[in-house]
Amino acid sequence: MPATAVTQTVLRSEEIRPAIGSRVLSSKQELLSGALANDIRELLQQRGVLVFPEVALSDDEQIEFTKTLGKFQPEPRGGDIFKVTLDASQGSSAEYLKGSLYWHLDGTMNDVPILASILSSKKVASWGGNTGFCNTYAAWEQLPEEQKREIDDLRVMHSVWASVFYYEPEPSLAKLKGMQAIGERELPLVWKHRSGRKSLILGCTAHRVLGVEPAKSAEIIVGLREWATSERFSYSHEWKVGDLVMWDNTGTMHRAEAYDLNSGRMLHRTKLAGEESFFE
Ligand SMILES: [Fe+2]
User: Fewest CB atoms less than 10 Å from the CB: which of 130, 178, 212, 250?
Assistant: First the structure.
């Protein structure tokens, strides 16, 4: 009897660093088919960041690919694609994006933060402009047991206004009040996920640990940020035009690294809607 040929699309990938990042080597057609969607989601949760080197998706293809992976999250001001640039002539959110130069996760002001962001590189900076990522699942998992017990139930006030001082030490009162109007929110320091895994919730909106005196609070936040963003848990992606990079927003932090603001660096972003609250 002749053997029946079974064609199965298999996700091809390789690890970038031991604790974070995988390169996905599957073709554009395989990605758009949706046949790999479950495997991609699984790999994303395990590795934090997935890089699809020079896969060169158009905007429509990026939207299509995003929709194969989960619930597509449109932009709040309309449209499906958000243009990430610090060049004010190219995007209306350049001012807001200044905070993206510091470690953060997206959506700390929401009950349910986005699951993932997907960025496509359209133009690279003449210098700098890598995107840094760190794995906050791995950072939690590798903490000493004693420290885990100490911090497991701490709660942290997250304030967008506090992050203004990172890039503008002496803001006007009007600016401060404008940022304060965005609100603030108490979040657990340790996110207990449905899966049973835990990750750290940190970043430039993490303002103070509740119930702890200010100096100790700063020590906890700075110490954990230093640990989570250390070489061991992090990866800095150097962009090539056409690269697509996706991160699990619920188990990583990210930041843009400094670059030539006049070079027109441009990334196009799509998002997957969140599926899990900070307070599971
Ligand atoms: Fe961000």
Answer: 178
